Each structure stands twice: as C-alpha cells, then as structure tokens.
Amino acid sequence: MTDKPLVLRAPAGLFWLVGVAVVVVLLLVDVVARGSWSQLLLVAPWTLIPVWFVWAFLYLPHIAADRDALHVRNLFRTIRLPWASVDDLVMRWQLEVHLTPDARAAGFGGRKGIVEAWSLTKRWRGIGRARIDETEQTLDVLRGMKASAGRQPGALPSATLSPAPLVVAAVIAVWCVASVLLAG
C-alpha cells in the first residue's frame, strides 16, 4: 500500500474552479490590454472574489483516506476519523461514515454519529453500471484501508481548525478596501 492518501473530491469543484479562473484571467488580461498595470491592481481583488468562493465552497472540501485515518476536510476544519472509530462506510448520494458508539463527530448538515461529505457518485440516471462499479471500487478501497489499519487503542475523532480560507478571504478583503481607497 502506498503512503499517498486517497483523495475523494467532487469533480464539479475542479470544473468550476478552472472555468472561473480562466474567465478571471481573460478579464484581467483585457484590463491590462485596454488599460494599465495599475488598473489591474485595482480590479484584480474584485475578480478574485468569485474564484475564492468556488475554491472555498466547491473545490476545497474533500475526503482523504490514508492508512491511519479518514480525514474529512470542510470549509473551516478538518475532522480526523481514525479507522478504529469507523464502524461502517456507506455510499449512495454521498459518503456516510458510521462511527462506533464511543466515537462521535458531526458534519455540516449531518446527523450525530455520521459524517456526510460531498457527493462521490453521479446523480444521473442512465449512466449505468459503470458508476455503481466505480462507487463499489471506492468503497472496497476504503474498507481495505480500514481493515489493514490494525489496532488503534484510544483513537478518537479529532477536529482541527483550518484558517487558510479565512486568511485568503481577509487578504482579498483588505485588497478590495485598498483598491477603493486608492481609486478615490
């Protein structure tokens, strides 16, 4: 087994991030072509706001699984679920992690004892058996990681704050205020 974690992310997040970033780059190139570099510095923070929203809300949330634990990354925190605290994994529209009775974690919009993350399966009908097989393969890999984790005495879920989205938002906000003050 490799030490590189298995990362599960909604594919729409990358699609939207690339799409919005391309549009923003084209707009900024147009500002430089028709205006100047100083105008670019005044306009750039306003065009970075939608890029930040797409990055923070669609691309950043993910699930990473390694040999020791399952990491659920949300907007402001990362929840670490050691494999010993995981009772079962179920996937229909999204991954549900059922925890053992002595381990508790709550996810955004989830019930106590279940951490629900972004959809990992396609919601279209007619795609057929390939999507179901892909989902089953993902579940098999995750269950295999859980089985190979071994004993982890006293391993309980933990949550850590992830300030990166707030720091980036604060930098963009300060830049926006500075651009308004400089533009007069």
UniProtKB/TrEMBL annotation:
<dbReference type="InterPro" id="IPR019692">
    <property type="entry name" value="CFP-6_PH"/>
</dbReference>
<protein>
    <submittedName>
        <fullName>PH domain-containing protein</fullName>
    </submittedName>
</protein>
<feature type="transmembrane region" description="Helical">
    <location>
        <begin position="40"/>
        <end position="60"/>
    </location>
</feature>
<keyword id="KW-0472">Membrane</keyword>
<feature type="domain" description="Low molecular weight protein antigen 6 PH">
    <location>
        <begin position="61"/>
        <end position="91"/>
    </location>
</feature>
<keyword id="KW-0812">Transmembrane</keyword>
<dbReference type="Pfam" id="PF10756">
    <property type="entry name" value="bPH_6"/>
</dbReference>
<feature type="transmembrane region" description="Helical">
    <location>
        <begin position="12"/>
        <end position="33"/>
    </location>
</feature>
<keyword id="KW-1133">Transmembrane helix</keyword>
<feature type="transmembrane region" description="Helical">
    <location>
        <begin position="164"/>
        <end position="183"/>
    </location>
</feature>
